Amino acid sequence: MIDLGKKSVLGIEVNAIDYEAAVARVIESAKRRQPMSVTALAVHGVMTGVQDKTHRYRLNRFDLVCPDGQPVRWALNSLHGLSLPDRVYGPELTLRLCAAAAKEDVSVFLFGATEEMLKQFADNLTEKFDGLRIAGIRASRFRQISPEERDDLVNEIRDSGAQMCFVGLGCPRQEIFAYEMRDRLGMPLIAVGAAFAFHAGMLDQAPRWMQDSGLEWFYRLTKEPGRLWRRYVLLNPAYLSLLAMQKLGLRRESGLEESKPTDELLFG
């Protein structure tokens, strides 16, 4: 089990952690019904915080920020002299959390995506993990919601009896939701990215060799070029350039300006 605390990657505090430790921390918080905000960041997620000082503030208040992408793991190892053997990939973390939840009798709520996707995800995962309890599902409205709708959603999730909640709204909306709702819901909120689509069987994952080589971004770009080209073609080179500057001591790695959000964005 590896849990070495948070380390700065371009001013974003990322946990140097492995799957075993991440799962243990989330399940323990769920059993104790403690609030917890969790995400797994690839290059896009890190760069969203780099480019937006308000979002950087949010990310740096998360309880657990896992190194989702291989380039983020490589950055942790290179910048901080670590030897993390693997990343903590969001879709794989989702599966391991479901396995642990089934074993520990921790109930799960699913929020985000479409109702069809959530139902298929729930069917697939309850078939895969005997004893997994899905306390409820709620599809995204794909817009900002009113304070009244927020309160209704909070009540629905809490009244379901769920002990943790997977949130799939896309980056950065899901992280904004987890930041804003952490204390209201009082349970682990796990931003799962494309895990709903992958495990519902509605989106193919990259071959393992591409994942291990840090080329998952290229595979996804070929599948969704219209949606993802800006994310990868523009952000990946910027990420590498900034990492080189941090490695050479030409860029400050901590203490960057942050701006506390003044209003809730209420994505739902």
Automatic annotation (TrEMBL):
The record's listing under InterPro entries reads: WecG_TagA_CpsF (IPR004629)
Keyword Lipoprotein listed? The answer is no
EC numbers for this chain = 2.4.1.187
A Pfam family reported for this protein in Swiss-Prot or TrEMBL: Glyco_tran_WecG
> What are the alphabetically sorted keywords of the record?
Glycosyltransferase, Transferase
Keyword Glycosyltransferase recorded: yes
**Recorded superkingdom:** Bacteria
Which is one GO molecular function term here?
N-acetylglucosaminyldiphosphoundecaprenol N-acetyl-beta-D-mannosaminyltransferase activity
Q: Which NCBIfam families match?
A: wecG_tagA_cpsF
Protein name in UniProt = Putative N-acetylmannosaminyltransferase
What is the species of this protein? Crateriforma conspicua
